[in-house]
Amino acid sequence: MGMNKLRVILVDDHAVIREGLVSLIDAQSDMQVIAQAGDGREGIEQARLLRPDVVVMDVSMPEMNGIEATRIIKRELAETRILALTAYDNPVYMRQLAEAGATGYVLKRSAAQEVIGAIRAVASGANYFDRAMMNESNAVGSFNAKRLRGEIKSGEITDREQEVLLLTAHGYTNKEIAERLYISVKTVETHKSNVMAKLNLKNRADAVRYALHQGWLRDS
Amino acid sequence: MGMNKLRVILVDDHAVIREGLVSLIDAQSDMQVIAQAGDGREGIEQARLLRPDVVVMDVSMPEMNGIEATRIIKRELAETRILALTAYDNPVYMRQLAEAGATGYVLKRSAAQEVIGAIRAVASGANYFDRAMMNESNAVGSFNAKRLRGEIKSGEITDREQEVLLLTAHGYTNKEIAERLYISVKTVETHKSNVMAKLNLKNRADAVRYALHQGWLRDS
DNA sequence: CGACGATTCAGGGAAAACCACTATGTACAC
DNA sequence: GTGTACATAGTGGTTTTCCCTGAATCGTCG
Predict the structure, then answer these.
(1) What pLDDT score was predicted for residue B136?
(2) What is the 3-state secondary structure of chain B?
(3) Which of A110, A169, A212 has its CB closest to that of B219?
């Protein structure tokens, strides 16, 4: 085993969580945390300066989110691997992160050992995507069966789907949405179930959570 | 002089974060983590079994949220102190938590040392509310003061009604609300229809609008 | 042209929500 | 001890959503 420990940077806006992860990672003999950052911008600066092996990146942060930060870091530092760490098992996020250059994606609900393993995996050049995610995306089967015969990737959200999802999150019933958009209730049902499958939202509460997260819901 | 360490239970749905906190807390000489739980329900079971000194409780969790779990634990275990740990400085949450019996409230963006300090504080019987919060509002103080004087009586809407309305606005179904609050679906229907009549809300969309206006809906 | 994606719509059965009305136990005040 | 407020729960009936399947129309792009 080389003397060289894996050099890790942590980017997360929650200090407590960051410090918890530090003590977990530093307890490993083969890796160490060389810097921390509280938002994407800071993370980029630290990465530029220190050229770490792995950046563990939270997805949702103030200032600059993890997707944009990932994109910028990868553009400048091709060698550095990015491991996304997020609370949301959202296939669209996963896809956007993969496109931005992340090679790993683990959920905050995973065990610590899994995160540690993921850091080792991406550092070695492998891809690591959370098992829970891969299983979930099978559960979206009825949608996939329709359009994605053979393909695994889930498409982006269409305008109409987003419109329906937004109105759903605002609490409108299918009937109200149908009237507002001059379409039938059945069409609303279709769009809703499709978009919810794409985003891995299981119920209306998930839809509200997603909309809040996107900043779609504001007092007006 | 107690050689007895403070016995702490952690409740948070994110395993990584939990384990990070464990290593932080166990590194202290005067406290130790005796159990963990991934949702409110589990947390209640563990607390019943182990009667800890302090429960560190995340607010937003699947199955049962921290507020309801706090209420139930306090009802059964008056001695146990509850320290709420949350990502968002939402005065409504803080008020509800205080009402439910939590005696401390710290933000995830705080430094680890502050969380450790807060655990010691609540364990000693003191209240601990995050400095960042107190600047935002003195809601807790005024709320507790009123509560002591028995002036809570929010006039129109009862606590239970507000709770049901909030969950409705968050998109939870009657069934989900009933499970969360340990009451029957019929009771949820009653509260919901009463509060909506009081506020002249005609449908769920109105409820969402009202909640947004009250600042009840935040990304979490 | 042919494939694909986006949008639209429908049937049918199970589940859930919605509505109006009634009712019980508890706590607290006067 | 009577009244009021509150939380709880029920009956019974109507409406709506949810879930699954299938399918027609209209662009665009190679």
Answers:
(1) 33
(2) CCCCCEEEEEECCCHHHHHHHHHHHHCCCCEEEEEEECCHHHHHHHHHHHCCCEEEEECCCCCCCHHHHHHHHHHHCCCCEEEEEECCCCHHHHHHHHHHCCCEEEECCCCHHHHHHHHHHHHCCCCEECHHHHHHCCHHHHHHHHHHCCCCCCCCCCHHHHHHHHHHHCCCCHHHHHHHHCCCHHHHHHHHHHHHHHCCCCCHHHHHHHHHHHCCCCCC
(3) A212
Q: By the CB < 8 Å criterion, does B110 face chain A? A: yes
Within chain B, which residues score under 50 in pLDDT? Answer: 1-2, 133-155
CA distance A18 to A25: 10
pLDDT at A136: 42
β-partners of residue B32 are: B7
- With tokens 């049902």, the residue in question is A189
Which chain A residues touch B19 with a CB distance below 8 Å?
20, 24, 111-112
Nearest to A85 by CA among A153, A21, A7: A21
pTM (predicted TM-score): 0.62
Beta bridge mates, A55: A9, A82
pLDDT at position B98 is: 75
